[in-house]
Amino acid sequence: MTLAEYVAQQQLRIDEALRRLVPSETTTPESIHRAMRYSLFAGGKRVRPILCMAAAEAVSDSPDGIESPASTLELIHTYSLIHDDLPALDNDDLRRGVPTCHKKFGEAIAILAGDALLTLAFQVLAQLACDPECKSRLIEELAVASGTVGGMIGGQVNDLEGEGKHPTAALLEAIHRAKTGALLRASLRMGAIYAGADDEQLAALSCYGEHVGLAFQIVDDVLDVEQPSEKLGKTAGKDEKQKKITFPAVYGLERSREMAEHERLAAHVALRPFDERAERLRELADFIVQRKA
Amino acid sequence: MTLAEYVAQQQLRIDEALRRLVPSETTTPESIHRAMRYSLFAGGKRVRPILCMAAAEAVSDSPDGIESPASTLELIHTYSLIHDDLPALDNDDLRRGVPTCHKKFGEAIAILAGDALLTLAFQVLAQLACDPECKSRLIEELAVASGTVGGMIGGQVNDLEGEGKHPTAALLEAIHRAKTGALLRASLRMGAIYAGADDEQLAALSCYGEHVGLAFQIVDDVLDVEQPSEKLGKTAGKDEKQKKITFPAVYGLERSREMAEHERLAAHVALRPFDERAERLRELADFIVQRKA
């Protein structure tokens, strides 16, 4: 199976799990479930769930049911996009080529749909069939990675307050590590924990997650400068307009591309303790750096 | 100890726990932690945590550490108030006598502070020292009660979409049961579960929670009509202005007062299987119905 086929297959597994886990559009109150599903099925690439499942596969041959905990990463990611796009935050009308949640359903429902996806992520984890000790480790990982201290919300606050500030390398790193890095790292860790990784495997996959997360963000920033909106499915050039602190803003385009390549290699090094079961993770690191959208 | 002394003591325990559990105002990023603490310590009565602790005390003599899970109910309640007060929802400037979170910190930080309190509630539960099976039951209770299907968010959506509609008894009950009822019921159930209640005790406390929850909401609606803003610490008469579906709107003031009294008695009946350890719960049911603010 090629990587493209593997990714497509994993995307289907995640979509199927999300359809099962999120209340249907005919469940009362219908409007909120429509809004949740609208944003969840608006063309997301499922990067975090796919990394989570690939990490589990690197540890164990068949981590049954992994798509449920993996899906919770997409629930969290999608809630954060809905809230980030709101007029009070990034005020974005377009996401993945379609109107953002508040443009389609109004601000009130968009705020509540974000809250609901966040809440549902923890409900899904609490209702997993795995052993309770594993469950509470997964819940702790997800909550800390999504939170204010070194987690996603903390990164969003830094990002918001960093707009217009002098773009320093230290500020950039702090924003990235928290805003996107923490959840990407948690994706790997949750997959590893679910599959029963030992401490050494968990540490190696965390390390891989940090490098891949950094590579992912650098490439995202570079694409925002290089690619037209149609290709990205979102408003291109927005970072610069909003005076966001980005890798190209701090290091320039060429140096940013070199840094992404460096992170890709470091991600490979982190996987040295693993055999061919980690091959998909290796390919995914390459893909994340070489993608064009 | 009088009930007033007991309530004051439990409020102190909860305040202490919240101060310990929520990152300090000097933790980076400071703005979000300031906003979270501002709303948490803006004079909340701690009704849900107090009911949770009293339920635990009805089951067990000394449920050690109960204030941590009890506090998560206040984290959820406070997040819901912050988001409810936003311009896109109830658009309220005043809450408990002070400016609402978005009035004080801006909309972006208020949205993120709500998200952060919600996330922190699950982190706190995942990090409890109790056994993992108990933890995952608590997390499931809190997530379901806060969610879209019969839970708090579902109730908020119904409430929002019910504005201006013909106020029927069925719609009123659906809104109330979900919007405030589910979390109040969960308060009792979480206390019971933490203290190791058997099935019969859990069912009795759930039943008490439903009646007390209903009584609480009826009295809230009645006070909104009867009391001036200064006494309530929020804008009085808002329900009618926003054409909210309330108990006085459906049943009139006098019948609403009778219904609250009926629910108070039903709450007492639910507690019959319990001995004097449930005395505080009995007193709290009386207090909730007789309060003037």
Task: Describe this entry's structure for a reader.
The structure is a homodimer of 293-residue chains. Chain A is an all-alpha fold and 293 residues long. Chain A has one domain: Farnesyl Diphosphate Synthase, CATH 1.10.600.10. Chain A has helices at residues 3-21, 30-40, 47-59, 67-85, 101-105, 107-126, 132-146, 152-162, 169-194, 199-226, 229-232, 238-241, 247-251, 253-270, 279-290; strands at residues 94-95, 98-99. In chain A, helix 1 packs across helix 4 (67-85), helix 4 (67-85) runs antiparallel to helix 9 and helix 7 packs antiparallel against helix 9. Chain A has a two-stranded antiparallel ribbon with strand order 1-2. The model of chain A has no long low-confidence stretch (mean pLDDT 94). Chain A is built from 15 helices and 2 strands. At the A-B interface, helix 2, helix 6, helix 7 and helix 8 of A face helix 2, helix 6, helix 7 and helix 8 of B.
Concise structural overview:
Two copies of one chain form a homodimer. Helix content of chain A is 72%, strand content 1%. Chain A is an all-alpha fold and 293 residues long.
Q: Which descriptors apply to this entry?
A:
homodimer; mainly alpha; globular; 15 helices; 2 strands; Farnesyl Diphosphate Synthase; 293 residues; 72% helix
Average residue pLDDT of chain A: 94
Tell me which protein chains meet in the greatest interface and how many residues each side has.
Answer: A-B, 53 and 53 residues
Distance between the termini of chain A: 22 Å
Segments of chain A where pLDDT lies below 50 for 5+ residues? none
Shape of chain A: globular
| Fraction of residues in H or I helices of chain A | over 70%
Kindly name the structural category of chain A.
mainly alpha
User: What is the architecture of chain A at the second tier of CATH?
Assistant: Orthogonal Bundle
